[in-house]
């Protein structure tokens, strides 16, 4: 294309400013939305792959009667390494902040720091998982049984700007550790996030315990570095065999065909294991956002193509003259392609600018990480290539459509825009309203489910409860109890290892009932006498714990139903403990899981303290918290306390769902906005084709309302058709999404009716302004040249 033709293209766009602005706005929003979602998808799909050689690192997992387990016995790694040449190396990892409930503290001189993200590992850890060292010798850091490795951020928190390598700290008031190395910070959204690592062998030495032959304790996550061509089937079969021989037969379990070697790079989207800290994502969520991005891009591109076609049909005489004067089809097509590419390129620049401006107001770490992907040269190049491709295709489609018209007929006026208007409405209205109604129904359902979660009765009173990690010290716990219950603002205090929202132990034990004995599987909670009253739980049969009880247990309703326990008597024994009561079911896990059999054992020396404050009044709560903190420090020798509100912790369980809902709502609104932009543009061209018809009707006495009804009825018709198509699609999609929850809201009919009404309202609001302008226009203006 020469310079003169380029000027012609620019003049054409200048004459059609409204169309150009509509196209720019729609494409800019569409491209920016797709870019952000694509960056999110790339970020999610790369979780676990940031570790070098991640494709050759595996973890053993098992599907058992107790749930999905990633824990293994300590000797298993060494056993498999000695037996199989495919095992290059292995590492056992013990999660201190899972096993001890975040109770670890580090002392540096007179200062004490709560450590929440510490785990123990074999000396081979940093040989398998490569991390960048800042100072110290990382390759042999854990060879020292008292070695400690810190991340940069943790080092700054504890030691300030000084190099901590070689310095000594005290762990939990009783064990000296030496800082061997400092590594780069682990991203907060990393699959295996931590801030410090200590030697597992040193932990064994400090506790005077040997795990070399302990096949009966599943306490460790074992990671294997395998050769690229390792025989996984053979490894899984041997693992099943040895676990069955050395552990499973003792409790009646069977690991055959239930053991898998899971690639580290696949763990992020894999089913979470019991008692692990790895961060997991939802592949379903990724697919939802991919689908939404495709829909937004589809709407934006369809709008662009249809508006370009509509604009082109107004230029049929110009194109006809060009053809009669010798312009080739190729040259005319190049004009349309150039116009299309210029608009898409401008939209690309505006979308990049929009994302950069948005990033200035973002402080969330995860969002910043996603936006950083957008700034990478490779991502921008790929995005640019995709945008230019869209412009090329749109220009070819628009130009080809116009070139199908006969130039002689167009110059005679025998082909007009009115012939094409049905196609515009079919292409734009019906498809876009199917998408709009489905998206509206989806977001209503998601928000309805979240409200259902927030309002559901959990079987206990979650308000005014605070909890904190507590040391297993019988005497000091009793001292703390005596102090706390004296305060007027404190209603009750209990110690336990089981609070709602936490991962709890699953076990198997003998149930003696009706003269029979059988092994049953259930969740266990250890607590003191005050647990049920502190939590506000309700007894439905039998009695609560009381002073003097020994070897007794309370079960929940689900336990009684699962094992057909009716009326209690003094002959029902669980794990050699007398069943004395049945408590009303309470939700101990998230609402993704059905309440299962659960037993509360009387074992008062456990890891959490939970306090019920007498009133929600902020002044009373503040007074109670101050007293709890001071009493705790007095009792545990100035040990720092890490205190939380239980209802806030429970809300955090569904933080991902809320973020998902908010982000999905935003993109749904953007999709609807882009749809409205396109619908607005098409309505302008559609009404232009009927200007003379409107003038004639008005001259013959048609009222404004009648004209508006005539112009709007086609849009209403397509909304009804779209509703019929979108409803079953949206119902099926939301039904599948709700299957993830054990407790879920109903897919009520009104959700889809409301979605249809909203779509109809949006359509009518979008086109009625143009309809009203056309209906109120002086008919003389339309007919003066006839």
What composes the largest sheet?
A: 14 strands, mixed
Number of strands: 25
Distance between the termini: 39 Å
Q: Please indicate the percent range of residues in DSSP E strands (runs of 2 or more).
A: 15-25%
Q: Calculate Rg over CA atoms.
A: 34 Å
What does this structure look like?
This protein is α+β, with helices and mostly antiparallel strands. It has three domains: 1-47 and 283-415, no CATH class; 55-269, no CATH class; 472-638, no CATH class. Helices cover 50% and strands 17% of the residues. It has 25 helices and 25 strands. Strands 1, 2, 3, 4, 5, 6, 7, 8, 9, 10, 11, 12, 13 and 14 form a 14-stranded mixed sheet that branches. It has a six-stranded mixed barrel with strand order 17-18-23-20-22-21. Strand 21 and strand 22 form a beta hairpin. Helix 2 (17-45) runs antiparallel to helix 9. The longest helix is centred in the middle third of the chain and has 35 residues, at 421-455. It starts with a helix and ends with a helix. 37% of the residues are buried.
């Amino acid at each position: 294309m020469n310079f003169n033709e380029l000027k012609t293209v620019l003049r054409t766009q200048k004459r059609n400013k409204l169309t150009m602005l509509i196209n720019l706005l729609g494409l800019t929003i569409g491209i920016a939305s797709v870019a952000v979602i694509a960056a999110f998808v790339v970020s999610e799909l790369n979780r676990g792959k940031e570790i070098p050689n991640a494709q050759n690192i595996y973890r053993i997992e098992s599907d058992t009667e107790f749930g999905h387990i990633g824990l293994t016995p300590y000797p298993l790694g060494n056993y498999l390494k000695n037996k199989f040449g495919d095992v290059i190396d292995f590492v056992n990892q013990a999660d201190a902040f899972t096993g001890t409930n975040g109770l670890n503290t580090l002392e540096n001189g007179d200062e004490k720091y709560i450590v929440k993200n510490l785990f123990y590992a074999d000396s081979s850890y940093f040989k398998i998982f490569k991390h960048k060292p800042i100072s110290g010798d990382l390759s042999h850091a854990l060879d020292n049984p008292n070695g400690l490795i810190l991340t940069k951020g943790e080092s700054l928190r504890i030691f300030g700007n000084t190099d901590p390598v070689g310095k000594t700290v005290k762990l939990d008031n009783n064990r000296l550790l030496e800082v061997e190395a400092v590594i780069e910070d682990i991203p907060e959204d990393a699959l295996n996030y931590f801030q410090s690592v200590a030697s597992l062998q040193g932990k064994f030495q400090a506790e005077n315990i040997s795990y070399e032959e302990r096949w009966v304790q599943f306490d460790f996550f074992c990671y294997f570095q395998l050769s690229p061509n390792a025989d996984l089937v053979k490894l899984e079969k041997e693992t099943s065999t040895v676990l069955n021989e050395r552990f499973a037969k003792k409790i009646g379990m069977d690991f055959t065909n239930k053991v898998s070697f899971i690639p580290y790079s696949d763990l992020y989207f894999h089913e979470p294991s019991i008692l692990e800290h790895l961060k997991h994502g939802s592949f379903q969520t990724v697919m939802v956002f991919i689908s939404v991005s495709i829909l937004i891009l589809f709407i934006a591109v369809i709008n662009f193509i249809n508006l370009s076609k509509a604009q082109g049909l107004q230029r049929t005489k110009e194109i006809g003259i060009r053809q009669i004067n010798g312009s080739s089809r190729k040259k005319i097509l190049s004009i349309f392609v150039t116009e299309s590419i210029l608009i898409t390129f401008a939209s690309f620049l505006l979308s990049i600018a929009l994302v950069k401006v948005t990033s200035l107001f973002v402080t969330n770490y995860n969002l910043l990480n996603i936006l950083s992907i957008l700034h990478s040269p490779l991502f921008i190049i790929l995005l640019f290539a995709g945008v230019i491709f869209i412009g090329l295709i749109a220009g070819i489609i628009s130009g080809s459509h116009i070139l199908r018209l006969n130039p002689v007929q167009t110059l005679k006026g025998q082909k007009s825009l009115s012939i094409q208007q049905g196609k515009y409405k079919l292409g734009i209205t019906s498809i876009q309203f199917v998408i709009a109604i489905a998206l509206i129904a989806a977001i209503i359902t998601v928000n309805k489910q979240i409200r259902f979660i927030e309002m559901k009765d959990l079987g206990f009173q979650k308000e005014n409860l605070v909890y904190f990690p507590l040391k297993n010290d019988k005497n000091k716990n009793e001292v703390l109890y005596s102090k706390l219950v004296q305060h007027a603002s404190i209603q009750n205090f209990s110690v336990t290892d089981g609070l709602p929202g936490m991962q709890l132990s699953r076990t198997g034990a003998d149930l003696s009932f009706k003269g029979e004995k059988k092994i049953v599987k259930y969740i266990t909670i250890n607590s003191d006498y005050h647990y049920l009253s502190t939590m506000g739980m309700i007894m439905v049969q039998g009695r609560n714990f009381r002073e003097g009880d020994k070897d007794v247990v309370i079960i929940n309703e689900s336990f009684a139903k699962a094992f057909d326990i009716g009326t209690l008597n003094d002959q029902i024994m669980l794990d050699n403990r007398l069943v004395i009561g049945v408590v009303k079911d309470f939700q101990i896990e998230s609402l993704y899981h059905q309440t299962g059999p659960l037993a509360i054992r009387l074992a008062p020396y456990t890891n959490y303290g939970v306090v019920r404050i007498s009133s929600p009044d902020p002044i009373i709560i503040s007074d109670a918290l101050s007293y709890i903190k001071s009493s705790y420090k007095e009792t545990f020798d100035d040990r720092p306390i890490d205190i939380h509100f239980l209802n806030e912790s429970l809300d955090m369980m569904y933080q991902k769902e809320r973020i998902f809902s908010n982000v999905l709502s935003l993109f749904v609104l953007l999709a609807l906005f882009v749809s409205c932009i396109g619908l607005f543009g098409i309505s302008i061209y559609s009404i232009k084709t009927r200007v003379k018809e409107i003038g004639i009707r008005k001259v013959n006495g048609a009222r404004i309302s009648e004209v508006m009804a005539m112009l709007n009825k086609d849009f209403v018709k397509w909304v009804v058709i779209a509703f019929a198509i979108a409803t079953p699609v949206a119902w099926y999609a939301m039904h599948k999404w709700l299957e993830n929850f054990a407790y879920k809201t109903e897919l009520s009919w009104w959700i889809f009716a409301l979605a249809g009404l909203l779509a109809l309202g949006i359509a009518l609001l979008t086109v009625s302004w143009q309809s009203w302008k056309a209906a109120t226009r002086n008919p003389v203006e339309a007919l003066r040249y006839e």
